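Entry 14. Structure prediction run on the chain below.
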Amino acid sequence: MDIIIVIATHKKYQMPEEDMYMPIQVGKAIKKDDLYEGDNTGDNISAKNPNYCELTAMYWAWKNLKADYLGLAHYRRHFCNNDHFLGIRRGTLKKVLSFEKASELLKKYDAILPQKRHYWIETIMSHYEHTHKIDDLLKTREVISKIQPDYLPSFDKVLKRRSAHMFNMFVMKQNIFHDYADWLFSILFQLEKEIDITSYSSYEARVFGYISEILFDVWLDKHQINCIELPVMFMDKQNWAKKIYKFIKNKFSSNELNSVDNEGEIKRVRAADIR
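Output returned:
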């Protein structure tokens, strides 16, 4: 079984040693330091890295690699070899998904996905509003309605959920991955034409990376592929108290909430009107 998991990275870092892992230096077209093989060869969108984040590595893998299975991980985040990993602990290279374990799982499943992250006190849509520019998400819906209308019910359904597959991490059969990448980038490239990000901060300028995390579940809802979920390990120490505080602060600092009505139509309403 031929498996390649590209690891998106922008700096030198500890990497798994197994041959199936392939570190890819993202944004290499605009950052000339030579750390790993870059996303700037062949057919690529390396120069878009400030806006597309790890998706420039995903695009490069889609256009330039061939394998039975292709995947994406991050230098700071990896699939865990043990499905009982406790997420609050710091990960180690010894616990990163192995070729042996991946092969065993992919004999039974078409894809390996990260365990869902749960947002117990809000929906995916309200979480996006509290952390990013909601108009970009509304514009995404418009784009889907124009170029991929069959996915609109799934889009509206996903926004009402309280959990999601985050981080743009996966390992998939090549043909499934190609179908997904073709769909995803058709939407993001059109969205790029329709929103003006010239005044965005460097954080908000990563908009296409943020939107893609939601779109992943939209595509999964539509296709219902045979998959298994594994825990994701954080290789750096995480300040969970700070993360939880920021999450709650964002939740209650917004003046507006968004909801998706029963007909799937997105509408904006003031929080004061929801009692």
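Confidence is low (pLDDT under 50) at residues 239-245, 255-275.
Filed with the rest of this week's runs.
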